Amino acid sequence: MIGLAVRQLRFGAAAIIAVTAGMSALVAAQYQTTFAGALDNGALRALAANPAIRTLFGEPVALGDPGGFTVWRTGTPVGVLVGVWAALTATRLTRGDEDAGRLDLLLSGTITARGLLARRLAVLAGAVTLSGTGVSLALLITGTAPAGAVLHGAGIAALGLVFAAVGALTAQLLPSRSPATGAAVGVLGAALLARMVTDGIDAPAWVRWLTPFGLTGQLQPYAANRVAPLAGLAALAVVLAAAAILAAGRRDLHSAPLALDARRRARTRLLHSLIGFALRRALRPWTGWLFGVAAYFALIGSLTTSISEFLSDNTRFGELAAGAGFGGLGSPHGFAATMFSLLAIPTGVYAAVRIGSFAEDETSRRATLLFAMPFSRRKLLGCELAITTAGTLLLATGAGLALWAGAAAAGAPLGFTAAIHGALNITPIALLSLGAAIAGLGRLPRATVALGALPAVGGFFYQVVAQSAGAPDWVLGFSPFTHTAAVPLATPDWPGSAGLLTVAAVLTAVGTIGYTRRDLAI
To answer: In the chain, N or C: fewer CB atoms in 10 Å?
Structure first.
């Protein structure tokens, strides 16, 4: 059972370890080449006093140390990444396998439901511990203090353990994988929002001990090096995991304590056509993505004035940001352009995940009856492609609208049209991710999501690494982000966008041909 669990999550764990360790090493090395000696005490005090900066990145601690700066700059993104992966993997290995019927025969043998869950949680705990270890090793290799490096890595691992246990618990309490995943991610989002609010308003220190992200911030690696918050995170993970294991032994297979009423009337809306069926499948996930992305960009918009004024008053930070490839942050339009460049990541991942869900329906045999009906696979994929494309464009538009609304509420001079143009400017990268996902569906269906996320996620990190290393323009050209302009600060790069869309169309065509000609993946 342990070997099976390792096999099920090994690729995802390897990707998470590589990304988190690479991100930490990159920022630590960039600090030593770009920021070291450039930040005086006055600038650091101004940074720590700005509520918008604290809201986004947390309370600045030990910024004069490369390790402390790395923890402040990457601690929250790395923690969110590990936490989301741990929660999603926990629900997939538990309720996901149960929904697909893969546990029915397995649990008819000598192993119990509690024993199986305990083994899978143990493997998942090992994976997130390796992720934290990778972060520590990355910081040690770049020359930061050993105590801070070990403590930060342990904090990331403990945070992953907490949300792995949260995912396992929701999988035992809710009737299927979808609501269990939504509840686990919702808990993570609420914890992150609580951290942002408490840091933004400079709440009392004891309030920060009430959430997992607050406890992680209280570790203060490279400064106070506190161990007590780490013990609190570990205790919380143990309590949640014990509750999940206890719940697993007290319910029947395919049941749940919070099961929905099974006597509801059949819901047949949108089931009379393929395009309607594709829309119905995508509507609920799209709503969740829109809510999360719009909430984040509305918050970003509300901070536009504060951050722009801060960078205008502290020109040294603006110069350092420009040297790292983020110029123009001192104006609302420049700040919006930088934030919109990050929008390509969630929109591209959304497109990849939707096509990945389409591939999973095939590999899990849920779509077997669809393939037996009198229409071609080309038509089936075409409907899914149309709905996913529309959802991606609307997701980007919603983010632009949310940022504009937040900026307008804060009194920032950012026009509605400028915000929408900036959001839509990154859609060629998202559609390139969609094309890569279709290519994966046609050639390597089990790697659909990974291949689809590569242009957006991999392209962004490739650009950051290449810029930090001072790579020539032809090397930077391999990143799709190089071929988009900083809209609304600048005019769109129409040739670059056209080139990205052309590559996306070619990948889509190649994937469609492969999908219609290959055997079904089972």
So the answer is: C
Question: 109-146 in b/e burial notation, b at 16+ Cβ within 10 A?
Answer: eeeebeebbbbbbebbbbbbbbbbbbbbbbbbebebbe
Amino acid occupying residue 185: V
Instruction: Determine the Cα–Cα distance for residues 73 and 60; give it in Å rounded to an integer.
Output: 9
The stretch 98-103 carries a mean pLDDT of: 84
pLDDT, average across residues 182-202: 84
Rounded Cα gap, residues 399 and 347, in angstroms? 10
Phi, psi for residue 301 in degrees, rounded to 5: -60, -40
Sign of CA dihedral 241, 245, 250, 256: positive
Mean pLDDT of the chain: 86
Question: Could you count the other beta carbons within 10 Å of the beta carbon of residue 288?
Answer: 14
> What does the alpha-carbon distance between residue 452 and residue 431 come to, in Å, rounded to a whole number?
10
Number of H helices, E strands in the chain: 22, 0
- Reading the block at residue 456, the tokens are 């957006």
Residue type, 62: A
Q: How far apart are CA 430 and CA 355, in angstroms?
A: 13
Short-list 24, 33, 5, CA closest to 97 = 5
Cα(76)–Cα(203) distance, integer angstroms:
18
First to last CA, the chain: 22
Q: Is residue 393 classed exposed, middle or buried when 0-12, 13-18 and 19+ CB atoms within 10 A define those classes?
A: middle
**CB-count burial class (<10 Å; 0-12, 13-18, 19+) for 391:** buried
Helix (H, G, I), strand (E, B) or coil at 449: helix
Q: Note if the bond before 332 is cis, omega within 30 degrees.
A: no
Identify whether the C-beta of residue 289 lies closer than 8 Å to the C-beta of residue 348.
no
Yes or no: say if 446 and 521 are a contact pair by the CB < 8 Å rule.
yes
DSSP secondary structure code for residue 455 in this structure: I
pLDDT bracket for residue 299 (50, 70, 90)? confident
**Nearest-CA neighbor of 60 among 217, 265, 255, 260?**
217
Comparison of pLDDT for 59 and 431, the residue scoring more: 431
